[in-house]
Amino acid sequence: MSSKNFQYKIEYLSVLLIRLLTKIFRGKSLYLLSDTLSLLPRILVKKRAIIARNNIDHVYGGNLLEKEKNRFIHDMFKSLCDVIVEFVKFPQMSDNAIKNMFINVEGLEHIDAVLKKGKGIIVTSGHIGNWELFITYVSLLGYKLNVIYREQKNPYIDKIIFQTRKRFKINPIPKIIVKKLKLKDREIMFRDDSFNNRVISHLRKNEIVGIMIDQSPAPTGIDGDFMGQKAATTYGPVVYSKRTGAPIIPVYCVRESRGKYRLIIEKPIELIKDSDKVKERLENIKRLNESLERLMKNYPEQWLWLHKRWSRS
Predict the structure, then answer these.
(1) pLDDT value of position 192
(2) Alpha-carbon distance 7 to 17, whole Å?
(3) From CA 175, how far away is CA 172, in angstroms rounded?
(4) Hey, where are the domains in the chain?
């Protein structure tokens, strides 16, 4: 057994252990488990903690004191572990128990109004609050939901995520990478040719397709402003919208207290058209990013700062 496969199996067994513990820790005590788990990432995955610290420095610079940055990272890991224990708990919960995790749902009428037009919906979001909860909730309401996702490196963990989503009738659309080209300064990945066709097909059936826009994409990302810095952003939602006529609606799920959330469904983003295509792309990217920025400024510790979001700057 390779060292990498051994690591994957240890991670898998850890998730199974968490699943077992969530059957013991119920109600508010579930978050005692989360608090305990939140101490481990800073010890076991120091590399990610360093990335988070670099990202915070990149965005906030000297505007935060050292102790504020440390608290920031502590709260982020705490938020992430809430997501993990809640997600692992979902298969044990009734549909109504999951729905009752929301104390407020704003803007559901925007989804209903757009679906009446028959063009489908492109839902954009980010890794803020509990993103798994919001897609589960939307599916439980009876909407046909497809989610584009990047497969986990750990195949055992990926299988758990896949099975949990299928349990709630969420259709995953994996970004299948069929070829990698290593250049001197970066790696370019080429996707399965059928990927875009599947996305467009779901939209033309008047279904919802969810896309997370807050991770650095490759190789087609366009540099745009994000939290005051240049960051590569996927242009996929705009391309799909132009090809199908499906509006783009930002949706977020933010935590108001432990185990209680607010679902925010915004109005469709108005895309621009311009003879200057560079200007058009930059403005549309700006509008995608601005929506997520507003949430991040109000709930910064709930965003996942663990990825190299500003790797090009």
Answers:
(1) 60
(2) 15
(3) 10
(4) 3-302
